[in-house]
Amino acid sequence: MKDYGFIRVAAAIPAVRVADTEANVAEICRMTGEAEAEKASIVLFPELAVTGYTCGDLFGQQALIDAAEAGVKKIMEYTRGKAITVVAGVPVRFRGRLYNCAAVIRNGNLKGLVPKIWLPTYNEFYEGRWFSSGRDFMSPCTGISGRFLVNGKDTVREGWCAEIKYAGFRCNISPNLIFETGNTSFGIEICEDMWTPIPPSSYLALAGAQLILNPSASNDLLSKHEYRKSLVSQQSARNVCGYVYCSSGFGESTQDAVYGGASLIFENGSKLSENERFSTEPSLNFADIDIERLDTQRQKINTFAALAPDGTPATAYDRLYSRVNLGKAAETDFGQKLYRHIDPHPFVPEGNPAETDARCKEIISIQVTGLASRLAHIGCKSAVIGISGGLDSTLALLVTALAFDKLGWDRKRIIGITMPGYGTTDRTHGNAVDLMEALGVTEREISIAAACDRHFADIGHDKSIHDITYENSQARERTQILMDVANQAGGIVIGTGDLSELALGWATYNGDHMSMYGVNASIPKTLIRHLVKWAAENHFGNEGRGDKKNSRDILLDIIDTPISPELLPADEQGQISQKTEDIVGPYELHDFFLYHIFRSGYSPEKIFFLACKAFGETYGEETVKKWLKTFIKRFFSQQFKRSCLPDGPKVGSVSLSPRGDWRMPSDAKPDQFLKQL
Fold this sequence. Notes:
Blueprint: E1 6-13, H1 21-37, E2 42-44, H2 62-79, E3 85-94, E4 97-106, E5 109-115, E6 147-150, E7 153-156, E8 162-166, E9 169-173, E10 177-181, E11 184-188, H3 200-206, E12 211-216, H4 224-238, E13 242-247, E14 263-267, E15 270-274, E16 283-290, H5 291-300, E17 322-327, H6 353-378, E18 382-386, H7 391-407, E19 414-418, H8 426-439, E20 442-445, H9 449-459, H10 468-489, E21 491-495, H11 499-504, E22 517-518, H12 525-538, H13 551-560, H14 580-583, H15 587-600, H16 604-614, H17 621-637, H18 639-642, H19 671-675
Parallel strand pairs: 1-2, 2-3, 10-17, 11-12, 12-13, 18-19, 18-21, 19-20, 21-22
Antiparallel strand pairs: 1-16, 3-4, 4-5, 6-7, 8-9, 10-11, 13-14, 14-15
Helix pairs in contact: 1-2, 6-7, 7-8, 7-12, 8-13, 9-10, 12-13, 15-17, 16-17
């Protein structure tokens, strides 16, 4: 059973009975059983879940402290023979002091106790009245450092930790514990720890913890939850980690404080799961965290390990942490059920209409500003674009029109050229002409048919043979026309090729592959379609003159037109015969492959697994595998085209520019990658 680099975690919000440890322990065991049934490897319970957080001065009663210890022992017994790790809050007395701890329990054993460091002493909270800080274990001056347990054996070395006998078991007690299970290392910080300027989780992550658990008891106030979510999101992003947050819920609310029971699971800034607060029923939240992706991201971010301005490496702090091996993770069948949304279109903005509108506007603004800056810098008089009536040239024309508007230049200085050839259809030609007219740019039409006929005669090529020479000659003739007209007009050629085509090498070398500034260079095909639709509905809807079609209608028809280079003759009905996606495969699949290869460094096997999850209702496994093989082969073999790309604005986090974002040898072999499929 393959884990694909995932680990399943659960955040449990039990119904608490304050100071009733027997009832609370029974609820913890019951919910642990539910989490185990879902094959979770770790289940997190709130702060002081064994006793309840709001016990107040009852924490000074021996009866409650003894009952808590007995309760932990019952949880230990319940977990015997199980592969799940339980993390639950409990008060622990040690050397005459009481600590607010998280107990880590696995297979009948107490594997460690992690005390809270920062104790709130304001408003309705006054933990310092009852508890001591975990900082007691973080100074060599305390006299309790130096001897602690490593895998159950006494070890003497420099470190901040102590040994405790609790619930009949010897274990370590310290904030500086990192626990290991399966492919995952996790650390623990408790509630207020996260709200400090430099949370303990920052150090835990630098010492290797990929997952942070936070058992909390955070009351609810107006607007506090959104701020709390932002903290969890930021901390998971800053530390490139998974973050499981679990706060007290129904039953804890007493006197002046109300606890809504918030559970949040984030990964590198993105929310994977969230429960509904203020429920009177217990809740159990699951998510599958991608540990493999986190490791890859940490590897790529060279500032991740920059702990201090003086250059002190993170590894220098590793000696301060004791590592506790918990054993294997649960055997989870992620293929059967995945607690994780796999976005089939990772490049396309999602969210409410306002968020989507803002993101599309920002993308277009980046393109427009990049082009406007280049035009102003070189002081050119015009811009030249080949307009085919397809998606790519349409977006390039829209961006160029907006760039000229931004500079206060007349759109007539934009020269749009249609270059009909052997495969041009009336639909695409008509849309190209109509769009240029609606936008008010200068229109030119230069047929390439006669020039290509002469060229074929010159090189001795039979025009009836529709091979790669036949196709590429047309693309290069069009590029030559654009370059020469740009020289005539004192302008530059605006490239129309997109990121998906660059990934696949679906461009004619020194044909449509080349321009003087490629505005679509980091925009994938799925996003281009989305942006053109957004532009039609939000920006260019009313442009047009008289009884002519307005730009909105033209753009919507372009969106519905099959993607094609139109280098082969039309069919008998005059329709497009050469459909790109029939040849290289669906762009939505290729964009999915590209995103996860570039952003996540996934293996082909994992990409195949995720693609089948994301597109299971659209494509069968064999279809996905076929086009993934095509993508890998083309991605490797076509690198030479990407090695000499013109400048273009970087819009998103995925870019194949050879000047920084993607450096790959042109002669690299795909064999090892194809083997996995």
